[in-house]
Structure to design on (690 residues):
């Protein structure tokens, strides 16, 4: 049973609806503000995020401030009864600053300093940039800290990337000195620098990874990524000093990015670490709906996975969708418009998994530069008579009805473990198949089984407790941090069920291979030893047979394992490892652990987890029958269940709840039949008392 979370700001008693609003791009168009006021009401919005890239409008010349436009935006919001999420403008800065203080500009890994341009192009160590940022943030907090419209700080924008300037190199060396207790010996050991004669004899020899320098020492790569996360958090903490001082009651967030495989280059930060420093999690969701490489349901499952991860970053506290598009983006390979119904469906999905907002990028399309054709609530046409505007207004009306859902969360008995550092280390690992490692996709394939069965799942990072879950699944847990093996042993000994797979328990947190046999510290609890891994070409498969004689295929990876107490529940029936275990089970203490020694096909996962689900009596949050492409998710508090029924297929789909269920349609307030048909991309939110 889940509790209802207190709002992080007292004004947040309902769902937030609105988004990025850039009146600073329209300073010469005074009538636009009047139009916006009108349209914001018509669209049923209540919250705008402003000033995200407003610095050159606020401080056009060094020390010359123009707050009048922002005053007006804040006052108009208050007059409308709306909320403002006020951004600190550090995501991009005025040209005068780069010209006057070149140290604020980032240096790339090739050691070339960037020119002024784009955004997110600052050095996160530069004392000048930190000072300038604190100055402008202090002025904002002094001026607007008590403004009735202000409900939250939006710190910078999508922090990411790194800087390799001399200041950052020094900071990196200091960070390493702390990490390795001032001992170069410790560092040399952790980085295995005997390899290729890489031993360091002085701290000054150490440099960040570079394309024309060092990039093959995995411990260095990993520590650089950790440093980048820590230094970004450090920059963020320096940004919020004046805000914490002057506005201690205004919550602080920064917008994270997803972890879709197609967003790989941007997933630079470890959000597990960052999450501890924000008051509320928010993230920007841009799935490529209607793409030509996967079904809508398959993508919906991936999006659900990410939402379930973000919900757990703060232990179940609802998060915010800080950005999503009401129609299309401008940066996918093909920028497809959301089909009718899709916007409502994807919004309902975010709410279903724990979001307390639907906020857009962007409110109004700009006239020029690279984002002029990015989707927005208000089109260049400038009036509300568009398909997109109507669908946004419909979502706005629905969100008003969903106010009671705010603060409720999801109750899950199954956890899937996702680890940013394993993702980094696996991506860096040379070996395996370079294209087939697919860590995130593998986690999402295991997640699929539960999503298709409407069984709630928490996606958790390794810092979270395992206790309380009936089943914990850790696919490809390549890197194990100190003590994790013991935690799994305790969990299973006390009755937990733990599943892991090939390529787990191979390296410690310095990316050094475990000695004495894989899966390292998980060997005892799994009762197996993994001796070899065989990588297959994409077109190859290997056969395996389970105890009932069912035949399945494995792809990409097959491990040759020895039983050390565990029993085989499936065995390979082809290749030189014919007869060896392809999956095992082991009773340990009062629990049981499982090892899947190959990348089994989906059918195997369905059968394997199907049995476990039955054995453990793991149920959906509410009894229901529907197609696998229909998702039923539940948010609840002590009294009420909020049931989200979503059809991610292109066909009509029947949904059948138990005959005696009493369901109310939250949009209309009317009683809903227990059996109904959802149109393609249809969605409905229902309420039922426990
Ligand atoms: C990101 C940024 C926004 C905007 C959108 C476009 O999420 O934060 O400023 O550029 O992408 O999709
Ligand atoms: Zn720098």
């Amino acid at each position: 049973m889940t509790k209802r979370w207190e709002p992080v700001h007292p004004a947040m008693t309902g769902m937030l609806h609105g988004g990025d609003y850039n009146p600073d791009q329209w300073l010469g168009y005074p009538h636009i503000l009047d139009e916006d006021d009108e349209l914001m009401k018509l669209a049923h919005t209540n919250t705008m995020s402003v000033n995200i890239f407003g610095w050159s409008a606020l401080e056009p010349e060094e020390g010359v401030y123009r707050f009048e436009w922002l005053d007006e935006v804040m006052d108009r919001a208050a007059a409308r009864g709306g909320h403002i999420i006020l951004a600190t403008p550090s995501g991009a800065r005025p040209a005068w600053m780069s010209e006057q203080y070149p140290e604020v500009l980032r240096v790339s890994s090739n050691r070339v300093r960037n020119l002024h341009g784009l955004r997110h192009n600052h050095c996160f160590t530069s004392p000048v940039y930190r000072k300038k940022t604190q100055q402008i943030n202090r002025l904002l907090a002094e001026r607007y800290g008590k403004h009735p419209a202000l409900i939250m700080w939006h710190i910078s924008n999508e922090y990411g990337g790194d800087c390799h300037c001399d200041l950052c190199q020094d900071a990196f060396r200091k960070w390493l000195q702390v990490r390795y207790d001032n001992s170069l010996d410790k560092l040399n050991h952790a980085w295995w620098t005997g390899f290729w004669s890489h031993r360091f004899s002085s701290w000054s020899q150490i440099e960040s990874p570079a394309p024309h320098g060092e990039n093959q020492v995995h411990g260095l790569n990993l520590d650089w990524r950790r440093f980048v996360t820590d230094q970004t958090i450090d920059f963020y903490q320096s940004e919020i000093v004046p805000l914490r001082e002057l506005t201690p009651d205004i919550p602080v967030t920064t917008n994270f990015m997803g972890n879709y495989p197609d967003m790989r280059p941007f997933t630079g930060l470890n959000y597990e670490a960052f999450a501890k420093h924000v008051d509320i999690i928010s993230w920007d969701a841009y799935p490529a709906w209607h793409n030509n490489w996967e079904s809508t349901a398959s993508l919906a499952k991936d999006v659900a996975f990410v939402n379930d991860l973000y919900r757990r970053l703060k232990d179940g506290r609802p998060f915010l969708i800080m950005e999503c598009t009401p129609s299309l983006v401008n940066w996918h390979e093909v920028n497809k418009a959301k089909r009718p119904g899709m916007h409502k469906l994807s919004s309902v999905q975010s709410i279903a998994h724990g979001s307390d907002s639907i906020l857009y990028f962007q409110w109004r399309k700009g006239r020029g530069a690279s984002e002029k054709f990015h989707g927005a609530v208000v089109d260049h046409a400038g009036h509300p008579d568009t398909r997109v505007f109507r669908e946004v207004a419909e979502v706005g009306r629905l969100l008003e009805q969903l106010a009671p859902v705010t603060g409720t969360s999801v109750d899950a008995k199954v956890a899937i473990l996702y680890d940013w550092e394993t993702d980094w280390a696996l991506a860096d690992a040379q070996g395996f198949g370079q294209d087939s490692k697919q860590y995130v996709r593998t986690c999402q394939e295991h997640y699929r089984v539960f999503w298709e069965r409407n069984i709630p799942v928490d996606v958790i990072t390794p810092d979270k407790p395992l206790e309380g879950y009936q089943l914990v699944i850790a696919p490809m847990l390549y890197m194990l941090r100190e003590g994790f093996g013991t935690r799994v042993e305790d969990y299973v000994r006390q009755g937990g069920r733990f599943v892991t797979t090939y390529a787990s328990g191979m390296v410690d947190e310095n990316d050094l291979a475990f000695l004495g046999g894989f899966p390292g510290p998980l060997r005892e609890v799994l009762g197996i030893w993994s001796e070899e891994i065989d990588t297959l070409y994409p077109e190859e498969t290997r056969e395996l047979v389970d105890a009932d004689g069912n035949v399945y295929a494995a792809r990409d990876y097959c491990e040759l394992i020895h039983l050390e107490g565990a029993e085989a529940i499936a065995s390979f029936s082809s290749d030189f490892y014919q007869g060896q275990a392809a999956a095992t089970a082991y009773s340990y203490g009062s629990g049981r652990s499982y090892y899947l020694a190959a990348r089994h096909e989906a059918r195997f996962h369905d059968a394997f987890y199907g049995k476990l689900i039955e054995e453990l009596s793991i149920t959906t949050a509410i009894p229901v029958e529907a197609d696998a492409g229909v998702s039923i998710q539940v948010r609840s508090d002590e009294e009420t269940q909020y049931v989200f029924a979503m059809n991610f297929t292109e066909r009509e789909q029947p949904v059948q709840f138990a005959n005696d269920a009493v369901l109310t349609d939250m949009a209309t307030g009317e009683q809903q039949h227990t059996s109904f048909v959802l149109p393609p991309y249809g969605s409905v939110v229902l309420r039922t008392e426990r």
